[in-house]
Amino acid sequence: MLTRLEKTLYRLQAQHACFAWAFEQIAGRPGIVFELGLGLGRTYNHMRRHLPDRRILAFDRKVASYPDCTPDEKDIVLGEIADTLPEAARQYRGQVILAHTDIGSFDREQNRRLSEMMSANLLPALAPGALVMSDLPLSIPQTEPLPLPQGARPDSYYLYRRP
Amino acid sequence: MLTRLEKTLYRLQAQHACFAWAFEQIAGRPGIVFELGLGLGRTYNHMRRHLPDRRILAFDRKVASYPDCTPDEKDIVLGEIADTLPEAARQYRGQVILAHTDIGSFDREQNRRLSEMMSANLLPALAPGALVMSDLPLSIPQTEPLPLPQGARPDSYYLYRRP
């Protein structure tokens, strides 16, 4: 059984490996990015650096990110993601080329609900060829699960593509 | 320049590598452990698992750790570490075989003060051969800096030994 240090370490390793792979995959394809769960802003900061020309919309119920990891106000969607995602998926219909979500916790029941909510609401936003990176397993209609790239341990993260 | 994701990832990689090395080094040597900064309890959980027979005293100003990463009440030293460490270093004089501290932030001036405080107060607690693992560089009298083990990037963590 993994320790908490190991769980977090392996999740971050997987994020890093999946981002490197995803940045290559979406290069040259138009589209915006959804960061579903801004948190401290670590992954937002990483995407901002590697995708300097993309619009990245960050969703969270409040802004608690480091100052240098905080998006412009116009790129923050405040509120419960269960409320804001369905509306944003309509507003940005078919425009999202990469969606990243890291909102799981150690509460299994809450994770199940969040996974259902993401799975039920994300699809309309996804462009053809869009990638979804998630810390929780998702079941998004019309998307296919992808194997993780090298450097990410099995089940440490989840990748999907809308064909 | 590293992104925030990379900084955190490399710090956790270094922690993991340094712990693996330190657990081997202190095997068979008596002594207790100081965890200076309990935080979420991730590294406490890792040490607890790997050092099942050691007493681990965890210091922090409040308990904010996951329930399964929280020490017994008798092993928590509550208060500002600047206040509690000098007293604990007297109480456990020469008894600490491993001290771990991960209390740095992105506030350089605060980091400098914390580093000075640790450096000035830890020595009396350290047993001969004791190891100190720190996220901030320290200058503890009578200790020597050690190279990081394989798997830890240079300057991602700091290791010291009292000869």
Please, could you describe this protein's structure?
Two copies of one chain form a homodimer. With 163 residues, the first copy, chain A, is of the alpha/beta class. In chain A, 35% of the residues lie in helices and 21% in strands. The first copy, chain A, has helices at 4-26, 42-50, 81-91, 108-121; strands spanning 32-36, 56-60, 76-78, 96-101, 126-134, 144-146, 158-161. A seven-stranded mixed β-sheet of chain A has the order 3-2-1-4-5-7-6, with helices on both faces. In chain A, α2 links the parallel β1 and β2 (56-60). In chain A, α3 (81-91) runs parallel beside α4. The radius of gyration of chain A is 15 Å and the shape is globular. The N and C termini of chain A lie far apart (36 Å). The model of chain A has no long low-confidence stretch (mean pLDDT 96).
User: Helix/strand/pairing class of chain A, anyone?
Assistant: alpha/beta
H-E string of chain A: HEHEEHEHEEE
Mean pLDDT of chain A: 96
Query: Helical stretch count of chain A?
Result: 4
* Helix percent band of chain A: 25-40%
Widest sheet, order of strands of chain A: 3-2-1-4-5-7-6
* Major pleated sheet of chain A: 7 strands, mixed
Which terms summarize this structure?
homodimer, alpha/beta, seven-stranded mixed beta sheet, 21% strand
What can be said about this structure in brief?
Chain A is of the alpha/beta class.
